[in-house]
Write a structure and sequence with these properties.
The complex is a heterotetramer of chains A (155), B (1086), C (305) and D (223). With 155 residues, chain A is of the alpha/beta class. Chain A contains five helices and four strands, in the order H-E-H-E-H-E-H-E-H. Chain A has a single domain, classed as Rossmann fold (3-Layer(aba) Sandwich), CATH 3.40.50. Chain A has a four-stranded parallel sheet, with helices on both faces. In chain A, strand 3, helix 4 and strand 4 form a beta-alpha-beta unit. The longest helix of chain A has 18 residues. In chain B, strand 51 and strand 52 form a beta hairpin. In chain B, helix 14 runs antiparallel to helix 27. In chain C, helix 4 links the parallel strand 3 and strand 4. In chain C, helix 5 runs parallel beside helix 6, helix 9 runs antiparallel to helix 10 and helix 10 packs across helix 11. In chain C, 41% of the residues lie in helices and 15% in strands. Classes of the chains: A alpha/beta (155), B alpha/beta (1086), C alpha/beta (305), D alpha/beta (223). Chains A and B meet through helix 2, strand 2, helix 3, helix 4 and helix 5 of A and strand 4, helix 2, helix 12, helix 13 and helix 14 of B.
Chain lengths: 155, 1086, 305, 223
Amino acid sequence: MAAEAVAAVKKGTEADASFQPRIVAFCCNFCAYAAADLAGSMRLNYPPNARVIRLPCSGKIEILYLLRAIEDGADGVMVMGCLDGDCHFLNGNYRAKKRVAAAKKLLEEVGIEPERVEMYNLSSAMASKFAEMIADMTEKVRRLGPSPLGTGVAK
Amino acid sequence: MSRTAMVIGGGIAGMQAAINIANQGVRVTVVERSPSIGGNMPRLDKTFPTMDCSMCILAPRMLEVARHPMVTIMTNSEVRRVSGQAGSFTVDVLQKARMVRDTCTACGDCTKACPVAAPNEFDLGLSTRKAIYQPFPQAVPQAYVIDKDLCLNKGHLIACERCSEACNAKSVDFSMRDETVRLEVGAIVVATGATTFDPTALEEFGYRRFPNVVTTLELERLINAAGPTRGRLVRMSDMEEPKRVAFINCVGSRDHKSGQEYCSRICCMYGMKDALLVKEHDPSTEVTIFYIDIRAPGKGYEEFYRRIRFEDKVAEFIRGRPAEIAENEDGSLTITYEDTNEGGIKAKTFDMVVLNVALVPSNDTGELAKILGLETDKWGFLKAPRVSGGPLDSSGGGLYLAGMVAGPMDITDSTYRGIGAAARAAGETEGDRSFPEPPIYPTLSTDEIRTGIFICHCGKNIASVVDIKELLEYSKELPGVVYVEENMFSCSEEGQRSMVKSITEKGLTRVVVAACTPRTHEATFQEALREAGLNPFLLDMANIRNQCSWVHPDGPAALSKAKDLVMMSAARAANLSALDVTTVGVVPRAVVIGGGIAGLSAAREFVSNGFETHLIERKPYVGGNVAKFSSVYPQETSGGELISEITCELSESDKFHLHASTAIDNVGGYVGNFTLTATSNEFVSDRCNLCGECVKVCPVKVADEFEEGMFSRRAVYRKDTYPPRYYIDAEACTKCGECVKVCKPGAIDLSSKDIELESGAIVVATGFEAGDKEQLRRWGHRKSKAVLTTAELERLLSGTGPTRGKLDSFVADPKNIAVLLCADMRWGRNGYCSRFCCASGLKSARELKQRYPAANVYVLYESMRTTWTQELLYEEVQGLGVRFVAYSFEDMPKITTGDKPRLVVKDPLMRSTLDLTLDLLVLSVGGIPSHGSEELMRALRISSSPEGFIQEAHVKLAPVDATNSGIFIAGAAQFPRDVGDSVAQGCAAAARGMAIISREFIEVGGVVARVLSERCAGCMTCLRTCPYDAIFIDREGLAEVNMAKCRGCGICTAECPAKAIVLRSYEDDQIIPMVDALIGGATNGG
Amino acid sequence: MKAGSNLEKILEKGQFAVTCECGPPKSASGDVIRQKAKMIKGKVDAANITDNQAAIVRLSSFAAATILMQAGIEPVMQVTARDRNRLAIQSDLLGASAVGIRDVLLLTGDHQKLGNHPEAKGVFDLDSIQMIDMARRMRDERKFQNGEQMDVPPKLFIGAAENPLAEPAEYRVPRLEKKVVAGADFIQTQGVFDIERFEKWMAAVRAKGLHKKVHIIGGVVPLKSLGAAKFVNDKVLGMTVPDSLFERMKKASDAKAEGVKIAVETIEALRKIEGVQGVHIMAIEWEEKVPEIVEKAGLLPRPAV
Amino acid sequence: MIVGERKSVTEILEMTKGYDRIFVAGCGTCVTVCLAGGEKEVSVLSSLLKINGKKQGHEVKVVEGTIERQCEREWVGEMKDKVRDAEAVLSMACGIGVQLVAEMYPEKPVLPALNTTLMGFPTQHAIWLENCRACGDCILHLTGGICPVTRCAKQLMNGPCGGSQNGKCEVDSQTDCAWALIYYKLKAMDRLDWMSKIQPPKRWDIAGHSGPRKTVKEEEVVP
C-alpha cells in the first residue's frame, strides 16, 4: 500500500481521495492553539484529520515526540508555533524549527519521507491560515500516502 | 478614604491602569461604554515597529483583566455623575441593559436567528452584524449583547424573540433594564482614548465620495486575517486587489483648516506599518507615501523608517502635501500634489488612496470633562497642567489621565501612562491593601486512577454536530474511566454543581471535560475540581467545540475526531499529578537606582503609597539632567524648581532614604527578594551648615560636570540641588583632609562605607547622557567657544547658572546664529532618533532670536520631528522670523572652525548654498546611554537593546518591565524621552514594583519546571537555554529551578540531555501517551 | 666557509645573489628538471627545489636536487617538517651532504589540509626552528638530535624562510631572530609586492642588527596575469598584492610584459634596501621568464666565485 | 570533558543490521553533557531503530538504559541483565565506554553509536572546542594557558608559521591561530620572553606515539 502511494506521488497522479491521513499537530498555546480556537469562532471549515496536542510553547517540542508519533504510525506530524520573532517565550519557536529540521533528517535516514513532519508558524489572529495549514498538510500527506508504519487502516 | 478606584475607559491604557491598580491590592471598577473592553487595539492588524500581531499581544491582557479577582468590568456603561473629592468620590454609573445574561456561552446561535443586520462598527462599517452580536470573537466579556436601537423586539409592539428562542443557554433576557449603580471610589483614572478624524469635510480628498479612498484604520480591517475580507486587500469599487496604493500623511493633522494644528504623533509610524502590510500582502504592489516630515521618534522607530524607506524600499516617499484627489472612470484616483523636494505641481494615479488621518478627542470627552469638572485644551483633550505630575495629573485632584484622552500617543506611551496613572490613583486609596486569599491546592492521594469524563453539549454547538450519545458510550470504555456524564452547559452553574457532586460521590481522581477551549475555560473547571477537594491540576480538557464541532460540519468525521480528542485527554489525565503552589515572602521595600526626574518620580510613588524606599544615586545630588534645565517645555518652570517640588515631598517622609555618591557593586536574589550591595562615598553628612569653609581650603580643581564641563570647581562643591549641603566628589578628592579640619560642625568623614540592602523590587532610572561628545567633535565642539550644545546653553541661559543667564562671554552682538538639529543622532554610531532634541533645539532658537532680534537665526534640520503640541513651538519659531534649512545626511552641513565657525550648507528649497560665518553655533544634542549603565545591566542580569539602553520585556505592553522579573525601568534609561514622559514612566515603574511589594508573598509553583536531581548531570544546558534566567546550580552542583522566575515554557525540558528536568503537567508521560493513544489506540482512523 | 657552496661564497663576499625556484614535476620525469635547468643555467647562483610544495605530491626534493646538480646548477634542497620526522630529516641531510648538496632550506611546510591529500596524517615532529637548530648541531657539533656523536658531519649552508607579512606582525622579527639564533645562515623571504611594508620590516630587522648576522634574500613573484595576481592575493598564504599593482595588471595591454616589468622594478627596489643581499625569483611554472627578468634587472652576468 | 557526536543513522543502521533485540546503552557523564549519548539521545535512537525495523516489516525489540559511566567496571556491571537479553549492545558512550563494555561482555557484539571527537569545553551552548590532546607533557604555564599542541594545526612550539593571517589559522579561516592568541596573551601579561626562547623538540613518545599509555598513582597501588 505504502509503496503504491509513493509510486502514485512519483507519477504525479492524484492521491487516493478515500485515504484519511492521521495527523498529530503540536500547537503552542499562545499563537497556534489560539488561532485554532479563533478558526472555531469563525466557523472555518477544514479537514478533520489533525488532532491538536497543546504545548505551552513550541520550544517544548522534542525530537522524540515527533519520532514517537511516526513510530506509532502517524501519517503526518505538525509543529505549529508563533511567527518568527514573535515567540511568547522569546525563542522557543526557533528551537522548534531546528528540531523539526533535525527530525526530518533522521527520518530521511531511516527511509521515511521527511515531508511527514513539518513546522508551521502563524499568529493567534491567523485563523484562516490555521485552517489552510491543516488543509495543506492533510493534502500533502494524502499525496504521500499512508505511513509505511501505519496499520494500514483507510476509510 | 475609599479603598477602591475607578477606571473610565477599557482600551489599552485603561486596562493597564486597571490591572496595575488591582495588582497593588486595590479594588477597581472599569467602566466601558461599549460592550467589550479592548478599545482600538483589537481593530489593528499589526503593531509597529516589531510587527507583533495586535490581537495576539492584547488577548491575554484582556483575559487577565477579566479574570482578575480585584477587577470588576462594567461594559455598556457610562459615568453620569461624580461628586466628592480625591479620596472619596461618589460616582453614578449608568449600566445599560445588555439583554444577555453572563451565562451566555458565546455560541452564536442567537446571531444566526436574528433577522436584523446593520453596519458593523468594529469593521468600521465594512461588514455587517446582527442586532444581537458579539463585537469581535475575542471580546471580553464573551457574552453577546443586543443592540437595542436595532432590535425588533420593542416592548409589546412587535414580539420578535427569535434570538431568545434560539438560545439554548436561556441567556437572552428582555426583561433586563438599564440601571444606575452608585460607587464610592478614592481615585479615578480617565482613559477614554481618542478617535480618528473624519476626513469627509476635507472635500479635496473625496473621502466617502470616492469608494477607493479609505482611512488607515479601515485599511487595518481590510488587511486583517479576521477582517471583513478575511485579509484580502481589495478596493471597494470593484473588489479587485489594488496594484498602486498611495498613503497621504497628515490628513487633518498639522492643519489649521480642520482645526488640528498639532501633530498627531503616531500616524507617520502607523502609515509606514500599513505600507509594509500592503507590500507583504502582495509584493508587486507599488506603494507611495506622501509626507511633510517623517516623524519616527521612538525606540526602534527610526530603524523601522530606514528599513521601510531605504533598506527594503517598501514604498516610494514623496515630500509634499497633495492638493486634490480626482476619481477616474475605472475607479482609479489621480492625486495632484506639489513636490516640495523637486518642485513643481505633479500628478500621479493610484488604485487606492489611504488617508493617514489625525487623532481627535473621543466624542464624549467634552461631556465627561464636564461631569468630572476637568479642563480641556483647545481641541478637547484633557489638560495635564501640573508639571511634577507629568502628563498623568489632570486639572482635578484624585483624577488621573491615561492614554490618548490627553492627546495622541502610541500604544507604548498609552501603556506606561496607564500603569503610571495606576500608581498615582492607588496613592489616593490609602489603607490596608487587600489581596484575595491564596487558593488552596488540595493534595489528596490520587494514586488510584478514577477518571470522570464530562461531555458538554454547549447547547446545540457541540450536540448538533457530534453524536453525544455515542461519544458517551465510547468514553465509558476508555482506560481508567469510571464515570461519564453529559451536561447541557458544563460551564453553567448547574453544570458546575453537578460536576462537583459527581467528583465527590464517585470518588473521581482525574477529570476530563470535553467542551470548549481551555484558554478561556480551564480556570472555571479547575475551580470546580478545587471545590470538590481535588487538586485543580488533575484536569484535562478536550476541545471538541472550537476545534471540532465548529469546524467540521460533517457529523461522522466530527464524532470520530471528538472520540480521539477525548481518548487523548483521558490518556493524559491518567498521568497527571497534583501540583502545589507555594508562596515565598516579599521584602516590602523598594530600591530606585538613579535620582533623575524618573527615579525621583518613582520614589515619590513608592513613598506616597507607604513603602520604605531607598534611592541610590552615583552623583552627590539628585535631579539628573533636568536639574540643569533653565526651563521645562512647554511649561516655563525651571528644571530646578520641578526637582525641588518632588524632593520637598520626599524629604518630608521618613520612608525615604537617599544614598547619594553611591555605586552599586552587586545584585543577587530574585523578584521579591533582591539583595544589593553598594559602596557609599557620601562624605558629607546632614550636619553640614553650608558655611562654605571647606571649599576655601580644597586644593583640587576639576571640570564641573553640572556646568557641562564649561567651568571648573573644587573637589568640595555645592549646587542648588538636593540634598542641600556641600558635596565631595570622591573621584577627584585626594583625601588631603584639609576640609575635615576646617569643618566646624564635623560633617565631613572621608571614608567609604559598604551598604547592603534587601528589596522586593528594583527600579532602574539611570537616565541618559546629554550629547555624544565623540560625534560632536565633527562640528568643532570644544574646539571653538562659539560652538555650544543645547545642554550647555541651558546652563548659560539659567538664571541660577554659572553666568546668571548671561551669554556675553560667549557671544556679543551676533549677526548669524545657527541651531543644528540631529547634531549627534541618526548618523554615525547613533542610528536612532533621540526624540526630545528637535524641541530643545527650537527652544534654543526661540530664546536666541528673542535675545538678539537683529541676528539671523537659522535652524538646520534633516527632518522636523516636533510631535504633538511641539508643533506649535515649531510654528511659533517660524513666526519669529527664524529661517529653516533642510539638509540631508548624504550631504551634511560643513563646519570649519576658526575664530568663528564657518557654515556651508545646501538649501534645497532655495536651490542655493548657504555660506555663513557664525557667531554662535548651537548643537541640539540627543541622549546616549549613561556611562556605566552597561555594567549595571550586567549586575542586574537585564538585557540591553541595540542602542545600549535597557531592553524592555515587551516594547508595547511591558515597556517598564526589564527582562529580569522584579526589575523595572523608568525614564531615559529605557530610551531618551522628555520630562513629562519620564515622570509618567517613573510612576509606571513604581506601580509595577508595588504590584510585587504590596503583597506579603508571591505564589510560585504550578506548571513550572522541576529538576529530578538524581538524574541531573549538572551540564548547565537548562541554565544556558532558559530564556528567563530561572535556573541556577545549587551547592551540590545540580540544577535547580527558581520557581518565582520560571514561566513554564518547557524549553529547558526539551533541551535536557538526561531527561532530568520536567515541566509539570507536560511531562513525557503526559504527552507521549496522548500520541500513543491517538495513533496506536485509535480504531477508526480519520 | 661552512659548506663552501656557490651561494655561500657569493653571499659571504657581499655580492648580490640571485636564486630562483624550480618546482619538481608531479610525475617521475627527471627531464622536466633537466629542461628547467637549461633555461636558467648561468642566470642564477642557485635554484630551490621545493619539497611537495603546497602539500601537493611531487617528485622528491632530494632526487630533484641531485638531478639539478648533475645538470650543473647548484640546488637549494628544501626540506619540510610536514612529511618527515626527526629521523628522516637527519638522514636526508646526511644523504644530501654525501652526494654534494650543500644548500638546504628548512621549513615547517604548508599544512597537508591545503594540498591534494588533505586526509593525510601530518608529521610535524619538529618545527622549522627546531630543524634549523638540529641541522646546525649536526654540522657544527657533530651531534644528532638525541645528542649522539657522528664521525663525519654534513656540510650544510642552512637556509630558512620568512614571511614578513604574516601575523602577529610585531612578532615576525623576534621570530626571525629565533631562526638566526637557531642557526640559519640565509633567509629567503616570501614574495614581496608591497615594498613599503617590506621596508618597514627590514628597518625592524636592521634595528636588531639581524641583517649582519644572516643573509637576507628577498622573494620576487612575477605575475603572469591579472588572474595570477588575484590567485596570489587570495589563495597564497602570506602574500598580499597591493591595489596599485592590481590596477597596473588590469590596465596593461600585455599583462605578461607588465608582470615582468613589475618584477624587475621590485628587484631594483629590493637592491636599494640596506641589508637585502639578493633576490629569490619564484616564477611558478613560468621559469622561462627568469633569464629575462634577471637580465632586465641588470644582474647578468652572474659572478663566478 | 570528552566530547562525541552520534554517528549517522545510516551508519548505525548498517552496523545493527540483522539484530532484532538491541540494547541501547547511554552514558550519564561526558556524553550526556555534550548532548550526544545521554538518556534523551538514547530514546531518540531507540525510536529510530524501531521505526526502521517496522519499516522493514519486522519488530525490533529495543531496550533503553543509561548508566552513570560506561568507563567504570562497577557501573558497567549493572547492565548485566539488559546485555544478556540483547543480541547486540549499541553503546552511546565514548570509545572508552564502548571498549570496557566489550571487554566485560566478550560474548556480545558491542557497537559504537558515537564518534568520540575531542576533549574540550563548550564555547557556547552546543558548540565544543578541542583544547587538550593529552600529550602528557603540559606546557600551558608557558603559553598563557593556550595549548599549541591542540590548537596549532602543526603543533608548533616556536611561534606561528608563515600562514598566520588576521589572527586566523592557514588551515581554516574560521579557526583562531593558537600562536596569535598566545602572543597577545603573553604580551598582555608582559611575558613575551618565553616566546623568544627556542623550545626544544617535544617528546612525542609520551604523547601517545608509543602505544597505549598508562597512568599509575604508585602509592595507591597495593599488590
